[in-house]
UniProtKB/TrEMBL annotation:
SUPFAM superfamilies: Glyceraldehyde-3-phosphate dehydrogenase-like, C-terminal domain, NAD(P)-binding Rossmann-fold domains. It comes from Aquimarina intermedia. InterPro entries: Gfo/Idh/MocA-like_OxRdtase_N, Gfo/Idh/MocA_Oxidoreductases, GFO_IDH_MocA-like_dom, NAD(P)-bd_dom_sf. PANTHER family: BILIVERDIN REDUCTASE A (PTHR43377). This is Putative dehydrogenase.
């Protein structure tokens, strides 16, 4: 079992503490949070060990789970890596791409593993169809959330859209060619709603919309590729796969047949995989433990986190033009 410690005990940090305690892959050693009043309340309620500094926590564990505000990610991650500790770090990986690159280089130097908390990669609706997404050429995503003051200190791109950016980059095997975007600040000082268009070198186009001022929650992505349409509902944890194949000469009475202007007939059929129930945060933590144990590449590597951040910051830069 890996000895684990959590840095940051806010809303998400408390969830990580509970799940690390439940996991068979970790031994939860304790946590540190500079907000002593909040930290003591957690000790009183759950009995977790509270360390008096980040340095003391890092020294006592094998893996540091970084769930601090983003502005603190780089400093504590650097400290942990230089101490020879593996790091699980929440998204976005850092404030800047330069900081992310430094962490990547340090992790290689000190031979430690790092994983970024892009939790939607572990959403069962996405994992059920990820292997069926092959060379998509058009992608459309909508990630809409009701207003919540938590997280409004950063643009909606870093708060919400970055989940879809990471998922898209994981299935489109091509470099980004061009990005255009627009964003509007409605309630916050930073954009609350944004739309981005990402064009890839292979011709794929992704259109992303994110909002944190919607009247309902929605997290849907649609992938279009040759002879197939794949829909993923991250919120409802549902997926749909619609495929087309050459129509048989004598289809049965219930077959769904389409004929184009050239007279080519195709049969539509559904190939919907079963979606299992899981806790995506627990899964990402457990898969990271397996990567450490087996010396394999984490599913969401530090490099993946850096690439998602780079695209997100390019989108944000379009708002200022």
């Amino acid at each position: 079992m890996l000895k684990a410690g959590v840095l940051g005990a806010g809303h998400l940090g408390k969830i990580h503490l509970r799940l690390l305690e439940q996991s068979e892959n970790y031994q939860l050693i304790g946590f540190y949070d500079p907000n002593l009043e909040q930290a003591q309340a957690i000790v009183d309620e759950f009995g977790y060990r509270l360390f008096d500094s980040a340095e003391a926590l890092i020294a006592a564990v094998d893996m540091v789970d970084i769930v601090t505000p983003t502005f603190a990610h780089f400093d504590v991650a650097k400290q942990a890596i230089e101490a020879g500790k593996h790091i699980f770090i929440e998204k976005p990986i850092t404030n800047t791409v330069e900081e992310a690159d430094i962490l990547i280089a340090l992790a290689k130097k000190h031979k430690v593993k790092g994983q970024v908390g892009h939790v939607e990669r572990f959403n069962p609706a996405f994992t059920s169809v990820a292997s069926k997404i092959e060379n998509p050429m058009f992608i459309e995503t909508h990630r809409l959330a009701e207003f919540n003051p938590r997280g409004t200190d950063v643009p909606v791109v870093l708060d919400l859209m970055i989940h879809d950016i990471d998922a898209i980059l994981s299935v489109v095997k091509s470099d980004v060619k061009q990005i255009s975007a627009s964003g509007v600040s409605v309630i916050s000082e930073t954009p609350d709603i944004a739309n981005a268009r990402i064009e890839f070198e292979n011709g794929c186009v992704a259109n992303l919309t994110a909002s944190r001022i919607s009247l309902k929650n929605m997290r849907k992505s649609r992938f279009f590729q040759k002879d197939a349409y794949i829909s993923v509902d991250f919120f409802e944890k549902k997926c749909e796969v619609v495929k087309m194949k050459e129509a048989p000469e004598h289809p049965d009475d219930f077959a769904m047949i389409l004929q184009n202007a050239e007279g080519i007939k195709k049969q539509i059929y559904f190939d919907n995989p079963e979606v299992s129930t899981n806790n995506a945060i627990l899964d990402e933590l457990n898969y990271f433990a397996e990567a450490v144990k087996n010396d394999t590449m984490p599913i969401v590597s530090l490099e993946d986190g850096a690439r998602a951040l780079q695209v997100a910051l390019q989108i944000i830069s379009c708002f200022k033009k």
